[in-house]
């Protein structure tokens, strides 16, 4: 069974998907050039992000361009705002909220794209 490979085009990536795909590629030897490149890319992300506290148990990587939306979704999921209310939602500075949330995250590079992971 082939695991969907996490890519730099995904808004959100689960660390377990990266680890599963690395394991799958290791077991699939011999690898073609594309698979070797994929393995190197995934290993680079894993090496850079593995200091995150729950890396092996499931840590979320959030694409930089998606982080603002992620912050808003997280606030809704935590019950901090009512997603159906116009006020005060339309008054919230979501860019600032995302920057404040990012303080608890660190950036990692995935093929030239910045992702954020909890530190």
Task: Please give a structural write-up.
- The protein is an alpha+beta fold and 119 residues long.
- The protein is 42% helix and 16% strand.
- The chain has a four-stranded antiparallel beta sheet.
- Strand 3 and strand 4 (113-118) form a beta hairpin.
- It is elongated.
- The two termini are 32 Å apart.
Topology:
Elements: E1 12-14, H1 15-27, H2 33-49, E2 60-63, H3 67-77, H4 94-102, E3 105-110, E4 113-118
Antiparallel strand pairs: 1-2, 2-4, 3-4
Helix pairs in contact: 1-2, 3-4
Radius of gyration: 17 Å
Structural class: alpha+beta
Would you report the number of β strands? 4
Overall mean confidence score, pLDDT: 93
Shape: elongated
How far apart the termini lie comes to 32 Å
- Low-confidence blocks of residues: none
Strand content: 15-25%
Quaternary state of the chains:
single chain
The number of helices is 4
Work out the helicity level: 40-55%
Biggest β-sheet: strands ordered side by side in the sheet? 1-2-4-3
**Sheet of most strands:** 4 strands, antiparallel
What is the H/E order?
EHHEHHEE
């Amino acid at each position: 069974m082939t695991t969907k490979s996490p890519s730099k085009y995904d808004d959100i990536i689960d660390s377990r998907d990266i680890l599963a795909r690395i394991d799958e590629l290791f077991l699939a030897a011999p690898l073609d050039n594309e698979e070797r490149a994929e393995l190197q890319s995934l290993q680079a992300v894993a090496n850079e992000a593995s200091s995150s506290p729950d890396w092996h148990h499931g840590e979320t990587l959030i694409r930089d361009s998606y982080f603002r939306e992620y912050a808003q979704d997280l606030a809704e999921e935590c019950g901090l705002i009512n997603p159906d209310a116009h006020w005060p939602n339309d008054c919230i500075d979501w860019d600032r909220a995302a920057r404040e949330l990012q303080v608890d995250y660190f950036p990692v590079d995935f093929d030239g794209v910045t992702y954020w992971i909890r530190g």
